[in-house]
Design brief:
Strand content: 25-35%
CATH topology of the largest domain: Gyrase A, domain 2
Number of domains: 3
Strand order of the largest sheet: 12-13-14-11-3-15
Radius of gyration: 21 Å
Order of helices and strands: HEEHEEHEEEEEHEEHEEEHEHHEEEEEE
């Protein structure tokens, strides 16, 4: 198997020593940083995530910091979502679009103050777009990447583990809200969020120097909870319909095509509003697609969705589900064929497979 050639362009994370000691098996590059995978097998990792608690090195979710007198004005220009409804302790899932309504990213926006935000981005160069808008308009704002690295704690036992390290106040954090809680003399932003459907938290660690002390504290506190180093599970996130920017959605897709129309509610004249509204009735949209038969091969390219010899969409993420005993997938399906119950064929690298559009994902 090919390995990643060492380079300072591909950065280690504050937790790299921890994942290496835990037995990192493979890694990929995300936002120019290592995204590690730590599991004996993908299925073992999947079952452990659903039953216990895992600590994830997701420092590759980099932050675009926006701070200054014009920070809110800049965010109103960038966000199709109404930020008037955003509380001071809230995180917002925010479609980020270009002037034609195409998605540039699907970040989580963290409001630290009215004049200070973190845009926690998926894999893209969104910081360049934010900087370009701010510079072109001459806004009084600073845009930069701070030394802030998220650490995920995911799984049904995550509340118990986090309470042992941060106290019972962590249990009171509501979904997509955060609290600042102390660790070794430093207040950390802890949000109830994460890239799984199993529940958990993301700890935004300010300062790489406390990355490993926190990692070690979580593992010391969670030995009897069967805590393990883990990583986002393709099987679990496809079951739950969690989208991956760059895989399931790209710049050519709008929030409406991605099923994110409920987050397009800003009354302001944000950048891309006219282009997005012109595409408000999508001709294709994300749908759960069940692929019938034996476990499918690993998906290494988009698989065409076919009907009557004609392409009517594509599948971009797919996997065998051990719990549901079927192949689960995320597809972008044409309006003519997206109704639940529609039968299609999928062209995989191992041949054609029969598939059915579902009404809901597998949760």
């Amino acid at each position: 198997m090919a390995s990643i050639f060492p380079s300072t362009r591909v950065r280690r994370t504050p937790f790299s020593d921890g994942v290496n000691a835990a037995g990192m098996t493979v890694c990929s590059v995300y936002n120019r940083m290592i995204l590690p995978s730590v599991f004996a097998s993908e299925e073992e990792d999947y079952h452990h995530l659903k039953r216990h608690v895992q600590v994830w090195d997701v420092a590759c979710e980099r932050q675009v910091a926006v701070q200054g007198p014009d920070a809110r004005a800049l965010m109103d220009l960038l966000s199709p979502r109404d930020l008037d409804r955003m509380a001071d302790d809230q995180c917002f899932y925010m479609p980020a679009i270009d002037r034609n309504g195409g998605m540039l990213n699907d970040p989580v926006l963290v409001k630290l103050a009215e004049d200070h935000y973190w845009i926690s981005v998926a894999d893209s160069d969104y910081i360049l777009y934010v900087t370009g808008v701010a510079d072109a308009l001459g806004l009084d704002v600073r845009v930069w990447e701070p030394d802030v690295s998220p650490l995920g704690v995911q799984g049904p036992k995550s509340d118990d583990l986090m309470a042992r390290v941060f106290g019972d106040a962590v249990r009171d954090i509501r979904f997509f809200r955060y609290k600042r809680l102390p660790f070794q003399g430093r207040d950390l932003v802890i949000a109830r969020s994460g890239y799984s459907k199993q529940g958990g938290f993301e700890i935004y660690i300010e300062g790489s120097d406390i990355g490993m002390p926190l990692w070690d504290a979580l593992f010391a506190a969670g030995q009897d909870l069967n805590v393990r180093a883990g990583c986002p599970s393709t099987k679990e996130r496809v079951e739950g319909g969690l989208l991956s920017y760059g895989n399931d959605i790209r710049q050519e897709n709008t929030p409406f095509e991605a099923g994110l129309g409920k987050f397009v509610n800003s009354p302001r004249d944000y950048i891309g509003k006219a282009g997005l509204m012109a595409r408000a009735e999508p001709e294709r949209q994300i749908r759960p697609v069940e692929i019938h038969g034996d476990p499918i091969p690993a998906i290494d390219r988009a698989w065409p969705l076919m009907a009557g010899g004609r392409k009517v969409g594509q599948v971009t993420s797919a996997s065998w589900s051990p719990d549901f005993k079927t192949n689960v997938s995320i597809g972008m399906v044409d309006r003519s064929h997206w109704a639940p119950g529609t039968t299609l064929e999928i062209e995989t690298q191992d041949g054609m497979r029969r598939a059915t559009v579902r009404e809901t994902f597998w949760t």
